């Protein structure tokens, strides 16, 4: 059936499909997305004969994933359904089976949302330019029917294989016994963490491991400091060596040290980069432009090649493929690994942190101190009517102080003393996003206050 361009555009985003269940997304819509995706991957240079499907713990996920499978098989392709999965577990299955994949999740969004993350064989990303645009057009015009025989649906449990694979990518041979507190946020970390950690010398202190897509305890979005509070308290009370927090689909991992203090994703990126460069000297490391300057500085000091990209997983994965980079990290706690088909895995990042911590005797706060050279504001959002005009006003105010300005993604203004800030307009909301970094917290606060006063005037 044909649909309005507006209704389709509201849910088919730049990198995935996402919307409110029953209002924007239902079984009929998802069935057509499955059919169109099957048509997409059935053609081209590497035609697919099957698609692997996984889903998170949301109440709507099983029904929607079955509807998607019906759409796929109606187009003559087979389906391998792996059932409950984290997003990186789905990427693993896509790589293992060399098949395109579809993951049903809305990540950290509230319970009323659901969506689909799509990938080609080998976990290669699908975005607007690489398939979602084609799917959008077919949903508007109507997906052509297929006159051949329908495909089949089989089930395959890959959880144990996934757990063994990710453990095998990190040298855990010198890991001393650690007490590890983990907040799964009632998301898919409650499914994957026990499988991965079971074979490790780890005393697990679990929090909110019950799979519950209503998120009864807090949003499964550790990027918001409010959602780390319970884990921070648990780490302090239990005497854990480290705390880990996963988002709803467990593709992102946030770290808390033994004092209950958050470790920035940039510091984790620097740590993992150092470990990967120790294994493969001279390698390329990808970082987005919001990541702390400590990352390119450290990579250069260690003889690696830092490459800076725009924000967004499609840009990171594209540059990783182009450069052969061994690792990439984002300020949002997405971590990408060449040995994991270039896809992101919060679990792999967590294992690197445990290996680094457990391979020496210092507490995590001391271990990470060398990766925390700067103070940062985090992302500060402002609702604005005209993002371009507000950005121009900020640039005018800093014209005499700026050492340089680049426009790779929004505007990045470099200031004396290695301070910098970036202003980026949101692609989906009337927001202007500010990130500031400087040598001291006082300088960060001063700059942020000055910039926000202009942005919000």
TrEMBL record:
Pfam families: PGM_PMM_I, PGM_PMM_II, PGM_PMM_III, PGM_PMM_IV
Database matches in Gene3D superfamilies: Alpha-D-Glucose-1,6-Bisphosphate, subunit A, domain 3, Alpha-D-phosphohexomutase, C-terminal domain
Domain Alpha-D-phosphohexomutase alpha/beta/alpha: 12-130, 161-260, 270-374
Cofactor(s) listed in the protein's UniProt record: Mg(2+)
Ranges where the Alpha-D-phosphohexomutase C-terminal domain occurs: 379-452
Source superkingdom: Bacteria
Keywords: Isomerase, Magnesium, Metal-binding, Phosphoprotein
SUPFAM superfamilies assigned: Phosphoglucomutase, C-terminal domain, Phosphoglucomutase, first 3 domains
PANTHER family in the cross-refs: PHOSPHOMANNOMUTASE
Family, per entry: Belongs to the phosphohexose mutase family.
Protein name from the UniProt record: Phosphomannomutase/phosphoglucomutase
Organism this protein belongs to: Rhodococcus zopfii
């Amino acid at each position: 059936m044909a649909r309005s361009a507006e209704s389709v555009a509201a849910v088919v985003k730049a990198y995935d499909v996402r919307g409110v269940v029953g209002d924007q997304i239902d079984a009929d819509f998802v069935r057509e997305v499955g059919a169109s995706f099957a048509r997409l991957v059935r053609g081209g240079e590497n035609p697919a004969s099957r698609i692997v499907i996984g889903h998170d713990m949301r109440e709507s996920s099983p029904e929607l994933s079955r509807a998607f499978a019906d759409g796929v098989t109606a187009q003559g392709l087979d389906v391998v359904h792996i059932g409950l999965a984290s997003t990186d577990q789905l990427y693993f299955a896509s790589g293992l089976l060399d098949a395109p994949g579809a993951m049903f999740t809305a990540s950290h969004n509230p319970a009323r949302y659901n969506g689909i993350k799509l990938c080609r064989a080998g976990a290669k990303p699908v975005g607007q330019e690489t398939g979602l645009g084609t799917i959008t057009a077919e949903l508007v015009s109507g997906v052509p029917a297929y006159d051949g025989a329908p495909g089949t649906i089989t089930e395959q449990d890959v959880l144990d294989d996934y757990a063994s694979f990710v453990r095998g990518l990190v040298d855990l041979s010198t890991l001393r016994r650690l007490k590890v507190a983990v907040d799964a946020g009632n998301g898919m970390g409650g499914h994957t963490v026990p499988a991965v950690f079971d074979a490790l010398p780890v005393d697990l202190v679990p929090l909110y491991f019950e799979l519950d897509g209503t998120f009864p305890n807090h949003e499964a979005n550790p990027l918001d400091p409010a959602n780390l509070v319970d884990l921070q308290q648990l780490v302090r009370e239990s005497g854990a060596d480290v705390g880990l927090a996963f988002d709803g689909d467990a593709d992102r991992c946030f770290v808390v040290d033994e004092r209950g203090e958050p470790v920035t994703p940039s510091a984790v990126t620097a740590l993992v980069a150092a470990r990967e460069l120790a294994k493969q000297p001279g390698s390329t490391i990808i970082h987005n432009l919001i990541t702390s300057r400590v990352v390119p500085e450290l990579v250069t000091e260690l003889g690696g090649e830092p490459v800076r990209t725009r924000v967004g997983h499609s840009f990171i994965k594209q540059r990783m493929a182009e450069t052969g980079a061994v690792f990439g990290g984002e300020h949002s706690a997405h971590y990408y690994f060449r040995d994991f088909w270039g896809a992101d895995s919060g679990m792999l990042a967590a294992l690197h942190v445990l290996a680094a911590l457990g391979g020496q005797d210092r507490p995590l706060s001391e271990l990470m101190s060398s990766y925390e050279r700067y103070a940062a504001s985090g992302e500060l959002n402002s609702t604005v009517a005209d993002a371009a005009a507000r950005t121009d006003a900020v640039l005018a105010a800093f014209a005499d102080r700026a050492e340089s300005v680049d426009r790779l993604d929004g505007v990045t203004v470099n200031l004396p003393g290695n301070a910098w800030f970036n202003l980026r307009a949101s692609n989906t909301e009337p927001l202007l996003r500010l990130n500031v970094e400087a040598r001291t917290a006082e300088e960060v606060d001063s700059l942020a206050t000055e910039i926000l006063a202009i942005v919000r005037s």
